[in-house]
Specification:
This protein is mainly α. The chain has helices spanning 2-25, 31-43, 47-60, 62-65, 71-90, 97-120, 127-139, 143-160, 167-187, 191-198.
């Protein structure tokens, strides 16, 4: 259990740090962070506070979808935003295009590793992933269709609000799936260990 908790929170903090790296690279972010940046710009808020607020609102959409949050879900709402704001406070703006390009690649890789860690810990999906799986379960639409529709919607909304769309957005879309598929087996807890530890309280 201690290992799973440690993996969960390291993964969530790393995800927040990778978000800050996307912001400092300023070459385009993943769709949800394009949306977060757009909202932050409209309301003059820190991106971390926006991430927490959006996560909480998305979690409310779980109610009609009959999704049940786990520890990882609630932690995701809180920790990602706090980690992103803390990392941005420590990470100065970068002017060099070479350094920003390196930071972008590191952000994509860090995001994939972080996702593998917090999903592999087995404490429940994040609010945004749960929205996808909940719509899939309630409507029968394919996961691919639901995920694409959600991400295109938030990407367009974020871009219209002034969120940063660029080459990084395209690279993320192309690379994140294969990278998560590569990273997830590294961090997935063995079935026997999960059964012994959490069988009575498994959260879907």
């Amino acid at each position: 259990m201690a290992r799973r908790l440690l993996q969960l929170y390291i993964g969530l903090v790393l995800y927040g740090v990778s978000t800050a790296m996307f912001v400092r690279a300023n070459l385009g972010a993943d769709p949800w962070n394009v949306f977060h940046l757009g909202v932050a710009q409209i309301f003059s808020l820190n991106i971390g506070m926006v991430m927490i607020g959006v996560g909480a609102l998305v979690l409310l959409l779980w109610i009609p979808l009959r999704q049940k949050p786990g520890l990882g879900t609630i932690s995701n709402v809180i920790v990602l935003g706090l980690a992103a704001d803390a990392a941005l406070a420590l990470m100065p703006p970068i002017e060099s295009l070479v350094a920003r390009s390196f930071l972008l690649f590191a952000a994509i890789l860090g995001n994939a590793i972080a996702t593998g860690m917090y999903i592999g810990a087995g404490f429940g999906s994040g609010p945004r992933d749960g929205l996808m799986t909940g719509i899939n379960a309630r409507t029968g639409w394919s996961v691919r269709s639901v995920r694409t529709a959600i991400e295109l919607t938030v990407l367009l909304a974020g871009w219209l609000m002034g969120g940063t769309f660029g080459v990084g957005t395209v690279l993320y879309a192309l690379a994140i799936g294969p990278l998560i598929q590569l990273c997830l087996p590294w961090f997935r807890i063995a079935p026997r260990a999960q059964k012994n530890l959490v069988e009575p309280t498994v959260v879907p």
